[in-house]
Amino acid sequence: MSRGLDTEAQYLKGVGPKLAQGLAKLGLFTVGDVLHYLPRRYEDRRNVPPIRTLRPGDFATVRGLVSEVNSRPTRGGMVILKVTIEDGTGCVGLTWFNQPWVGRKLAAYKGEVVAYGMVKEANYLLEINSPEFELIDEDDDHDQFARIVPVYPLTEGVAQRTVRRACQSAVENYLGGVQDPLTDSFRQTYNLKPLAWCLKQIHQPEEESDRLEARRRLVFEEFLYLQVALAMKRAETQQELGIAFPIPDLIDGKAPPLVASSAAEMRDLTGKMAKAAVVKKVKHSSHLFEPEAEAKYAGVGLWDQIHQMLPFDLTGAQRRVIGEIFRDMERPTPMNRLVQGDVGSGKTAVAAAAMLAAVRSGYQAAMMAPTEILAEQHYANLHALFDPMGIEVVLLVGKQTKTEKTAAGNKTREGTAKIAVGTHALIQEGVAFDRLGFVVIDEQHRFGVLQRAALRGKGLGNPDVLVMTATPIPRTLTMTLYGDLDLSVIDELPPGRKPIKTHWKKPSERSSVYDAVLGLLREGRQAYVVCPMISENEKVAAQAAEDLFERLSTGALAEWRVGLLHGQMKSKEKEAVMLDFRAHKLDVLVSTTVIEVGVDVPNSSVMVIEDANRFGLSQLHQLRGRVGRGQYQSYCVLIADSRTEDGVIRMETMRDTNDGFQIAEADLRLRGPGELAGTKQSGNLDFKIADLVQDGKQLELAREAAIQLIGKDPSLALPEHAAMLEKVKQRREEQAVVTIS
Ligand code: ADP
Ligand code: MG
To answer: In this structure, what are the phi and psi dihedrals at residue 190, rounded to the nearest 5 degrees?
Structure first.
């Protein structure tokens, strides 16, 4: 008998052709497949304590016969299912809330149940809430006691016993054929056990510590291949030739000091830089300034110009990030940088500074936003900043007339417009640029890889690319989704902001909420009311917004000017409403989530979110970011009748923190990476064993290891890396690596 891992699974002892058909349903065709099929969880049957010995607070596995099944509705409309099990020493209740499928599964069941969870005491009885559980079917191996038993994922018509048997036999007879793609020295460096040993521990664990050790290696390895793929991608980008912007304030590649602690000091610093820039200007005199700006700005350093352009002093974090961007821009390799910052941290100012640098270096810049409202707002902001400096900004969005589009298009093609702002209208065929050198993508997870590439493709050679994300995302996600980008974080809010106070109120308290809103309106503030997201369907959502608008404008807010904004309105109407609200011709804006992104009205100091329970955490945080943008104390009121555990966690998290990164971490734990990223390009997020929620540390280590490895052997060409290269290639093929080029 051959001992190769490509031996068909049917030849495993105890399997045979018939059971092999079942294994094939799980995608297990060869012995190698079987060896790499990983248990979903384990059951520690060495220690199932008698129920009598359980104490509140224990995490325990319990086992017993079902003696009673009881299901009852509560006044709040919840259904509580309580199943009592007994083992001869005592009984324990297992309870589930609103999980009808558990009821269906257990209603007619009379056998044994194994359950795992935290033991509590309620009314002098022991119970476990929402335990993990399994029915002990007749099919189960009864020789599995007193061991840590692997529990494999199954599919219809395949028994746990079959898979267990196959895995056991593969481990017993074929481990010798396992080749480790990681070299001995690599494993030593990162303290990883050999693959064969790990596979044995995974399928037949003896000690929990060994099993965890084995899992750690497999997790590390899985992260490693993706991180190596991303590092190779980054290295490839570094090989390409991009634009070396002659940034006037960077003398000998050094950014100016970024530690000014006061506005005065900053002005002093920029003054010194201005002098230094004169020297630099001689070097790049050919295209440092546009002729018309030459007279006015000659000798004025870039930092000085940035300072003149912005109506406020930059925060330390903004200056640091701008410095990081400038250093990239100055290098001849293309920049690929991601800027993350919480809502309101001032990403737009950072982008504006970078675009100014590009323009002053003789190039054009473009900024792409995911929605028209946002593009228009960026346009309005950037126009106000750049126009006084003689830099023309144009807008390109789908709803413009042909004439408007042609006019804007001509200006970008001829190069009279230095900056273009738009939606994906920017990447339409026919839109061309004279010297596009710098691209900003305000991305909010909405653009695909292809769209980013398309805008980049309109540039000269390889333009520098700056990606800005609207919401902070957890570091583990950044490393997987954007692992090929360099990262800058704006970790400071502009000064003088008062943290938003968030309250969670029950629907029964609604009238007092609107009373409080009225108080703020009387003080001259404005308010947002976000209506519940009843359905994904835009029409239904619009109807809900209209209903709420009717109710409020004839009821609680009858005395005030109330506007309505939803996705079904025509662009012109939406624009008119937004302008009125911004100009304080409206006091209250009733809206669907279309106000989620970018809307900036500093006089608005309160937001009421109706039925807040229907929104995800990150979305709530985004919405809340619309207030607290001015000097006034701002409030966010979540009206929600949260009944589920998740719902309560969401409301409490919102109430207790304003920190976007903390909120993102909580959201990751609640929803998992795929949902949180909200992206179809989640190939990077598919892991067999690794878990982005709990394995963040291994991810960091694997990323470090990948960077080291690619530093030494950029294309994994060394013979000892051949097996690794094979794995990395597989990873790249199976799940297209997300990149922006
Ligand atoms: P983000 O896009 O990161 O959510 P914005 O760029 O829209 O944030 O900035 C939020 C608000 O803060 C805007 O009104 C902007 O003018 C203001 N702002 C940005 N940076 C500063 C700063 N350094 N000092 C004062 N206000 C600032
Ligand atoms: Mg913004």
So the answer is: -105, 10
The whole-number pLDDT of residue 326 equals 93
Q: How far apart are the first and last CA of the chain?
A: 49
* Ligand 1 close to Cβ of residue 629 (< 6 A): yes
| Ligand 1 atom nearest to CA at 314 | 23
Amino acid making up residue 629: R
User: How many C-alpha atoms does 362 have within 13 Å on its Cβ side?
Assistant: 14
Residues of the chain with pLDDT under 50: 1-2, 142-143, 251-290, 680, 737-741
DSSP string, 155-189: -TT--HHHHHHHHHHHHHHHGGG---SS-HHHHHH
List Cβ neighbours of 573 (8 Å cut-off, separation of 6 or more).
none
The residue count for the chain: 741
How far is it, in rounded angstroms, from Cα 48 to Cα 155?
Answer: 27
- What secondary structure does DSSP assign to 31-67, as a single string? HHHHHTPPPSEEEETT----GGG--TT-EEEEEEEEE
Q: Residue 428 corresponds to which tokens in the numbers above?
A: 């339409």
Which residue is it, tokens 């971490």?
665
CB 229 within 8 A of CB 703: no
| Nearest ligand by distance to the CA of 346 | 1
> Torsions phi, psi of 489, nearest 5?
-120, 125
**pLDDT in the model for residue 278:** 35
CA 273 to CA 267: how far, in whole Å?
10
Helix (H, G, I), strand (E, B) or coil at 107: helix
pLDDT of residue 310: 95
Give the closest residue to 42 by CA, choosing from 138, 114, 137, 126: 114
Contact 607, 637 (CB under 8 A): yes
The token pair that represents 261 in the structure block: 């602690």
pLDDT of residue 283: 36
The protein residue whose alpha carbon is closest to atom 23 in ligand 1 is: 314
